[in-house]
From TrEMBL:
SUPFAM superfamilies from the UniProt entry: S-adenosyl-L-methionine-dependent methyltransferases (SSF53335)
Taxonomic lineage: Bacteria, Pseudomonadati, Pseudomonadota, Betaproteobacteria, Burkholderiales
Protein name per the record: Release factor glutamine methyltransferase
GO BP term, example: methylation
InterPro entries, per database record: DNA_methylase_N6_adenine_CS, N5-glutamine_MTase, SAM-dependent_MTases_sf, Small_mtfrase_dom
CDD domains hit by this protein: AdoMet_MTases
The Methyltransferase small domain, residue ranges: 171-273
Keyword entries, A-Z: Methyltransferase, S-adenosyl-L-methionine, Transferase
GO MF, one example: peptide chain release factor N(5)-glutamine methyltransferase activity
Record EC number: 2.1.1.297
Gene3D superfamilies per the UniProt record, alphabetical: Vaccinia Virus protein VP39 (3.40.50.150)
Organism of this sequence: Paraburkholderia saeva
């Protein structure tokens, strides 16, 4: 996902062109100035708001403190008053975009071996290699905000996410949606299985739902994804848990070849445009994956088989999708509803009254829709 653009740095001996790294596909800043430990947070914030990036050449820990101080200044900006949840969502997305743009202006240099040539810099070579690939020897520049995200993702990958129904941990890779919201996993773990013979897991991500099916005794599972990182992540997780004999991970845009008596899919829940490639795990523009799954399901179900659609109604509360449009899409795909399992979310934002979208989150229900071909 990293862009292959370059950025021009102001050096004492003349401009220097190096590789620009951005997993969010953000274009390189056009204006760059050198910053060090003498720069105040107010001055840094003002320059960032004006579109000038700050290439840090001082102490790394001071750069982190500067970013934290700039974050506090961003958060002081008052929220726009919204007249509806849909408008609140749009304002929230605008604020997130502005926040990312401003805070992304603090830049950190990387040597060709992924070391950081700053005082008190952490060891990041392994984290960078996991995200950017093998060392090429090219010097580069990355935003401090992205670099801290890489470090955090590397720690999550090592530590893993505890999945109680598996009695094991899933280790998410950078850019692959982490199963921190466990309610959808619980739905797949508790809903009666129509078969133990075969299943398809569409958009497997970390492989967590394929692992749940395997643990429940499904003999043969084909797990698909179109993202190379997700494929590598799922393959690694399933092999480590000992399910690689039951689960075959394949690259596909939605469905693999053939039919199965059980086909499951947990598409992104919000039909909105992602602001970056990484957000495709959360946002489904024009409901592409949702409609693709529904419209292709009947052709990939064995006679009498079930399709399991795992979907939150969060988008409905935001006014981004209606229940009527979902039911119409199911009907138009030649499908019928034979059952539904519901569960309330348990994540911290569902009870955070200060969250700008709290009114929608408080009403949210995640459902497993059991569908059959008509």
């Amino acid at each position: 996902m990293t862009t292959s653009a370059t950025i021009t740095l102001p050096e004492d001996d003349g401009p220097r062109v190096v590789l620009w790294r951005s997993e969010a596909a953000v274009p390189p800043p056009k204006r760059v100035t050198i910053a060090d430990d003498r720069l105040t947070a107010d001055a840094a914030y003002r320059l960032a708001c004006e579109g000038t990036a700050l290439l840090y050449r001082g102490d790394f820990q001071n750069a982190r403190q500067l970013l934290q101080a700039m974050t506090r200044r961003v958060e002081r900006n008052p929220r726009k008053a919204a007249t509806s949840l849909k408008e609140a969502f749009n304002f929230h997305r605008q604020a997130q975009s502005q926040r990312a743009r401003v805070l992304g202006m603090v830049l950190i240099p990387l040597e060709g071996d992924y070391t950081i040539p700053l005082r008190r810099a952490p060891e990041v070579r392994e984290a960078c290699a996991e995200t950017y690939g093998a060392v090429t020897g090219e010097a580069s520049v990355v935003s401090l905000r992205e670099l801290l995200g890489l470090i955090g993702a590397h720690e999550w990958r090592k530590k893993g996410v505890e999945i109680p129904v598996l009695a094991d941990r899933i280790h998410p890779h950078y850019g692959v949606f982490s199963p921190v919201r466990g309610e959808y996993v619980d739905l797949v773990a508790r809903t009666p299985l129509p078969t133990l013979e075969k299943a398809f897991d569409i958009g497997t991500g970390t492989g967590v739902l394929a692992a749940v099916l395997a643990k429940r005794g499904v003999k043969k599972i084909v797990a698909t994804d179109s993202d190379p990182r997700a494929l590598a992540c799922a393959t690694e997780n399933l092999k480590r848990m000992g399910y690689d004999a039951q689960v075959k991970v394949v690259q596909a845009d939605l469905f693999p070849e053939g039919r199965a008596p059980l086909v499951i899919c947990n598409p992104p829940w919000v039909p909105a445009r992602p602001a970056s490639p990484i957000e495709y795990a959360v946002f489904d523009p024009d409901s592409r994956m949702l409609l693709g799954f529904l419209n292709g399901l009947a052709a990939h179900l064995s006679p009498g088989g079930e399709g399991w659609l795992i979907l939150s109604d969060f988008a409905e509360h935001l006014g981004l999708r209606t229940r009527e449009s979902l039911l119409a899409a199911i009907d138009q795909a030649g499908l019928k509803l034979v059952g539904r399992e519901d569960i309330k979310p348990r994540h911290p934002k569902s009870t955070d009254a200060n969250d700008p979208l709290h009114a929608a989150r408080a009403k949210e229900v995640t459902s497993l829709w059991r569908l059959q071909a008509r």
